[in-house]
Amino acid sequence: MVERSAVTILALDDEPFMLKLLARMLANMGFTSVTLCDNGHAALARIDNVSARPNLILLDLNMPGMDGIEFVRHLVERNYSGSLILISGEDERMLQTAEKLVQAHKIQVLGHLHKPVKPEVLSALLEQWTPPAPSSLPAVKKIYGADELRAAIDSGQLVNYYQPKVALASGEVVGVETLVRWRHPVDGLVFPDQFISVAEAHGLINDLTRTVLTSALAQAKVWQQAGLTLRVAINISMDNLASLDFVDFVVDLTTRAGVPPQRVVLEVTESRLMQDTRAPLEILTRLRLKRFRLSIDDFGTGHSSLAQLRDIPFDELKIDQGFVHRAWSNETLRAMYDASLALARQLGMEVVAEGVEDRDDWDLLQRTGCDLAQGAFISAPMPAADFSGWLENWQERVRTEFGNFNVAP
Description:
Elements: E1 8-12, H1 16-28, E2 33-37, H2 40-48, E3 56-60, H3 68-77, E4 83-88, H4 92-104, E5 108-114, H5 119-126, H6 146-154, E6 158-167, E7 173-184, E8 188-190, H7 196-201, H8 205-225, E9 231-237, H9 246-257, E10 264-269, H10 278-289, E11 293-299, H11 306-311, E12 316-319, H12 331-346, E13 350-353, H13 359-368, E14 372-373, E15 382-383, H14 387-401
Parallel strand pairs: 1-2, 1-3, 3-4, 4-5, 7-9, 9-10, 10-11, 11-12, 12-13, 13-14
Antiparallel strand pairs: 6-7, 6-14, 6-15, 7-8
C-alpha cells in the first residue's frame, strides 16, 4: 500500500471553486502534497521542474486558452511518466474518447470523473494508482528485414499456435484459429504484427500463407484421426487473393491433407483497400462454392465493412475485440456489439466474439445469444501439443464453474 502523503498530485482546473473542492477532498483522503493550478501554462511550468513533477494529475478538459487535450500533448512532449484522472462536464462518450487519446499517447489514465465530482468516485480511482515501473519507456518493437524473414520461412522457423473457439450455448469447443509465430533463434517468440507487413510488402505473403496452411491442415488431420471434429481457421491476406490460382492452391493442399473443406475457415481481413476487387471477389466466391467457410475478421475496424458483407458470401462474422471486452459496462461498446450481432443474424451468419477476457464478457455473450466466443478467458493461443491437456481442463472447468449446460465429451 502506497503511503498517501508520499503521492504528489497536481489539480488543474480553471474554476477556483472546483480547485478548492478537490483540495478539500484530497486532504480528507490523506493526500497532503497537492498543488493547484488554474491554467495549463502554470501547470506546465510546474511539470518542467523535474524535481517537482507530480505523480498524478487531475485534469479538467474544459478550460479556456489551453484545453485539457492540448495539455496532454504538451505532457507527451515532456515525456511525462505519471498518471492522469480526467474531469469534465462533457458527456460520457466525450470522456471515453479523451481517455482513448491519453492511452494512445502511452500515458496511464486511471479513469474519468463527471462534474460535480463525487468524493467516493474520486477515492475509488485514486486507489488504482501505483508507482510507475523503474523504466517507463515503452519497448521498441524490432523491425525484421525481408531476407531474414525469407530465411525463417525456408528453414522452418514459423510455427502455428491455436486459440480455441467455444460454443456459448453448450461449452463445446468447435474450432480453433491458427495464429503464426516466428521462433527466432535469438529473439525468441516473435508475433505476427512484427513480420506480416514485411511479408506483404516484399512479396513473401504467399510463401508464408502456404507454410501456415500446410501445417494447420496437417494438424487438423491429426485431430480428425483422434476423433476431434474441429474447424481450423486460417488468416488470409488480401494479397493472397490477387492471383487467381490461389483457389487451386488451397483446394490442392486441403485434398492432399484429407480434410473436408467444410472444416476449413478462411478468415479475411482487409488491411488496406484493393484497387481491383475482381480477383478477390472471384476467388472468395469460388472457395465458397467449394464449401470452404469464409469469415470476415475484425468486423467494424479498418476496411472490414458493410461493403464487404454486401459483396462477398461470408458464412461467419467476427466481432472485433474492441467492441466485445467490457461491452457489458460501456453503453457505446454495447450499442456497437448489439448492432453487429443483429446485422449478422439478419444475414444468416454465425457470429464469433473475439476478446472475451473475463466472466462478465462471457455472460453478456451468452445472454445475447452470440454463437461462439474466443479470448483469454477461454484460452490464450497455444502450441498444438498443449491442446489435448487444455481441452480436458476446459471441460472440467465448464462443469464446475458454469453449471448451466453440459460439455460434450
